[in-house]
Amino acid sequence: MGALSRAEAQERAPQPVTIDLAEVGVRALNAELHAPTATSYEVLHPHGAHSIAAGVHDEIDVGVRGHAGYFCAGMNQRGRVVVDGSAGNGVAENMMSGSVRVRGDASQAAGATGRGGLLVVEGRASMRCGISMKGIDIVVGGDIGAMGAFMAQAGRLVVCGDAGDALGDSIYEARLYVRGRTGTLGADCVEKPVRDEHLAELRELLTAAGLDHDPAEFRRFGSARGLYHFTGDHGSY
Amino acid sequence: MCGIIGLHLRDPELHPMLGRLLDDMLCGVSERGPDSVGIAVYGDETRNPAGHTAVSVLRAPGDLAATVATLLPGAPDVRVQPAGDTTVVTAPVDVDALTAAAVAAAPDALVVGSGHELVVYKGAGHPQDLARTYGLREVSGWQGVAHTRMATESAINPEGCHPYSVGADQCLVHNGSFSNHATIRRELRRQGVSFDSENDTEVGARFVAACLAEGDDLEKALLRLGETFDGFYTLLVTTAEGFAVVRDEIACKPAVIAEHPRWVAMASEFRALADLPGIDEARIFEPDPGKVYTWGR
Q1: Cβ contact B86:B57 at 8 Å
Q2: pLDDT by residue (tens digit) across B245-297?
Q3: A154 to A177, B16, B241: CA distances (angstroms)
Q4: From the Swiss-Prot or TrEMBL record, what is one GO molecular function term (chain A) (predicted)?
Q5: Torsion sign, CA atoms B104, B110, B116, B121
Q6: CA distance B226 to B218
Q7: With contact defined as beta carbons under 8 Å apart, do A51 and A72 qualify?
């Protein structure tokens, strides 16, 4: 038996269930997504509403057709969420697994405290992108604002454009890759050599994000591990 | 929390729609500040007629128009428009004369705005209810701002509403809190500035008014504010000439700007901008920390 052609496969794929936020509220949408009766959803007229597709914990696809407000796809587990627009504060905050793709820009604190999964922002991300990230992978197609990866603890942040000031301030771990210019580096954040294993993981992340930049164009930043221990004797206080 | 919206119309064809556009924007920030709302509009000639000036007053007595008329030379055409807690008084005299007459006529009242172009409304209550009280959807003009308040540092009453309008045709709205306002208030008092409240935002407004009175433009005044004030803030400042936005250096308080050939708008959240005509073609961005953005007429 031959494989299905792309068109045939498309035809057999279940049509997404459409939920129009001009007709029902976000609570009704999320109630359906939390106990899904389908595998694929399309959300119309998001209009910047908050908490769209927050708390998804099944392997479902959710397409948001327009701009989303705060906390879109927050706490995502296993879901695959695509926003065909921009997203407000805290997109994919505390994501555990799965993926979130924002085709436009993301506001502040994108991917905050995320523990796993992949967040892709095709446009720019604002300040505090990846704040306190704990294992999430974040790939940003454009620039990120100031204070990116603030207090980052684990995971990887890839910035294909420029990074704003105070990058990686008070970073514990996490690996940061920047293709463009960087502003100031935050406390305890330093540039580090790019070795083969870094090129390999960058290639993997860029491929997963659907970007074809040469990994050799990126610089790597991380923790100098100088803030892990108190160094003063406190005698001067 | 608090919500801010501001709209500066570049295209005169949109001027008759100012109130409707502001009302739609207000819906998007009502949840951020359900306690009270203040609104300022520029260029509505039915509310502030050409050749007149307007003074907005809280706690106005019922006979305000007659008393103000007797205090002004030549007994001019004094008109009064009540709108909830706010009363708007207009007369064909200069701003200082009308303000002085209103204060003399009603010593217990509080002047909350004045200008050639400007009308200010303030009140405690749900933003959408108050928008109806103010007749917001019928407003026309070229610029407007509104602030929905979730009070954190002073009482929920019309006096605590933003905008703070402390100079002719000037307005300042604030999301955040200043932490060194008491020190700056003392310094301004030493320089002869008087205050109506203990509110932190009023100190910001008085500081900006003092800078503008010294000849600074809006950008310089707001850069000086950034050097002097400590705390969290997103500010929207308007005058008869234009519109400015600034955030503190940490920029915790949200702000989204949308710029379109027909208008410039600013709001705490995108959803307040979502219904503006042509929003899909607008350049939408978040203002950088510490940077002053200005637009002129």
Answers
A1: yes
A2: 999 999 989 999 999 999 999 999 999 999 999 999 999 999 999 999 999 98
A3: 13, 54, 49
A4: glutamate synthase (NADPH) activity
A5: negative
A6: 12
A7: yes
Chain B interface mutation, best of A44, A86, A126, highest count of B Cβ atoms under 10 Å: A126
Tell me which amino acid residue A198 is.
H
User: Residue A62 in 3-state DSSP?
Assistant: strand
Q: What is the ipTM of this complex?
A: 0.82
Q: Is B288 close to A69, i.e. CB distance below 8 A?
A: no
Nearest CA among B97, B111, B117 for reference residue B51: B117
CB of B275 closer than 8 Å to CB of B263: no
B233 and B215 within one domain: yes
Alpha-helical (H) ranges within B143-254 are 181-190, 200-213, 218-228
Q: Are residues B97 and B144 in the same domain?
A: no
What pTM value is reported for the model?
Answer: 0.90
Domain boundary among B89, B110, B131: B110
| Per-residue pLDDT tens digits for A25-80 | 999 999 999 999 999 999 999 999 999 999 999 999 999 999 999 999 999 999 99
